[in-house]
Amino acid sequence: MLLLNKQIPLLGLIITLLLAYTFTWITFSNEKVFWYFYTFTVLFLMSIAFFYAKIDDKIKTIEYLLYGLGFGFLMYVIIAGGYKLLEWTPFLSTTSVKQFFSSFAPTSIWHYLLLLFIIAPGEELFWRGYIQQQLKRWMSPTIAIVLSAALFSFSLIFSGFWLGVLGAFISGIILGLLYEWKKSMPLIILTHIVMLVFLFLLFPLA
């Protein structure tokens, strides 16, 4: 479980989000430096989460392993199902998906290592562990989950990948609900990693 260690003023939360979006905009502006700068961005956001949160986990290892594998696969099925729907729909196209994968998908071993062991954990620590929990100070958990998922998906707007924005929002909702249900940061990190393994290694879409 990730509990708030320090409370940040609303203005501070807004500034943090602006910094996150600024770094993300720079990251997507040049695909040649994407993996370097996005890793730096996630490490920076992760440091904020560590400063303002106390990390804890109360569920048993076997429990978060089983739920992580199950929900990670479920998220992949939803994303893959949406992609297949695009392929089967005459007036929609999968071109944007293929273009995004061509520009930003991992292509080397160190890309995969960064994605699975720094980027995925860092995104969950920041967006679910920090942003979602801070938002709960001003609104109900349900609204905080939806808003944090929307804020998370908004960061992909700078890539121009609108279908990815929708996918990130749906994923954010699932991960946010799972976090509020089980109160386990390792669980949602594992869920995120399992989804990425299916998406980029086992059964890539494009």
From TrEMBL:
<dbReference type="Pfam" id="PF02517">
    <property type="entry name" value="Rce1-like"/>
</dbReference>
<dbReference type="InterPro" id="IPR003675">
    <property type="entry name" value="Rce1/LyrA-like_dom"/>
</dbReference>
<feature type="transmembrane region" description="Helical">
    <location>
        <begin position="64"/>
        <end position="83"/>
    </location>
</feature>
<keyword id="KW-0378">Hydrolase</keyword>
<protein>
    <submittedName>
        <fullName>CPBP family intramembrane glutamic endopeptidase</fullName>
        <ecNumber>3.4.-.-</ecNumber>
    </submittedName>
</protein>
<keyword id="KW-0812">Transmembrane</keyword>
<feature type="transmembrane region" description="Helical">
    <location>
        <begin position="161"/>
        <end position="179"/>
    </location>
</feature>
<keyword id="KW-0472">Membrane</keyword>
<feature type="transmembrane region" description="Helical">
    <location>
        <begin position="109"/>
        <end position="126"/>
    </location>
</feature>
<feature type="transmembrane region" description="Helical">
    <location>
        <begin position="186"/>
        <end position="205"/>
    </location>
</feature>
<feature type="domain" description="CAAX prenyl protease 2/Lysostaphin resistance protein A-like">
    <location>
        <begin position="107"/>
        <end position="195"/>
    </location>
</feature>
<feature type="transmembrane region" description="Helical">
    <location>
        <begin position="34"/>
        <end position="52"/>
    </location>
</feature>
<keyword id="KW-1133">Transmembrane helix</keyword>
<dbReference type="GO" id="GO:0016787">
    <property type="term" value="F:hydrolase activity"/>
</dbReference>
<feature type="transmembrane region" description="Helical">
    <location>
        <begin position="7"/>
        <end position="28"/>
    </location>
</feature>
